[in-house]
């Protein structure tokens, strides 16, 4: 169950990062509210996962999902630049996440 909490927390991190961008500095109400709600939920689920997962593993996986997810959302929804170097960086992050998962108990 902690891994499920952790993955959901990571996905919610992507949601709050995207809606924070859409809030335009917290000047738009609906995206701002979604940002705050998903941020709190993400932190709560991260906290639950940390009851049984090591801090380094949980935090690394959470931020990695957020980083690669935000990178993907930026390209797909916001039209951000795609380059070999950026894709390579994302592949390295995912590789690190897989290694972290494989080397962790639980």
UniProtKB/TrEMBL annotation:
Gene3D superfamilies, A to Z: 1.10.3730.20
GO molecular function: transmembrane transporter activity
Bilayer disposition of the protein: Multi-pass membrane protein
InterPro entries: EmrE-like, Small_drug/metabolite_transptr, Small_multidrug_res
Parts of the chain that traverse the membrane: 27-46, 58-78, 84-102
Primary location: membrane
Keyword entries, A-Z: Cell membrane, Membrane, Transmembrane, Transmembrane helix, Transport
Gene Ontology process terms (BP): xenobiotic detoxification by transmembrane export across the plasma membrane
GO cellular component, one term: plasma membrane
Compartment(s): Cell membrane
Assigned protein family: Belongs to the drug/metabolite transporter (DMT) superfamily. Small multidrug resistance (SMR) (TC 2.A.7.1) family. Gdx/SugE subfamily.
Protein name: Guanidinium exporter
Gene: sugE
């Amino acid at each position: 169950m902690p891994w499920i909490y952790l993955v959901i927390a990571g996905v919610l991190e992507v949601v709050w990062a995207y809606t924070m961008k859409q809030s335009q500095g917290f000047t738009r109400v609906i995206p701002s509210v979604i940002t705050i709600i998903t941020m709190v939920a993400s932190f709560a689920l991260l906290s639950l996962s940390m009851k049984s997962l090591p801090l380094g593993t949980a935090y690394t996986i959470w931020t990695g999902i957020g980083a690669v997810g935000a990178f993907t959302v930026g390209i797909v929804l916001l039209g951000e630049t795609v380059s070999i170097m950026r894709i390579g960086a994302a592949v390295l992050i995912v590789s690190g996440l897989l290694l972290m998962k494989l080397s962790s108990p639980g």
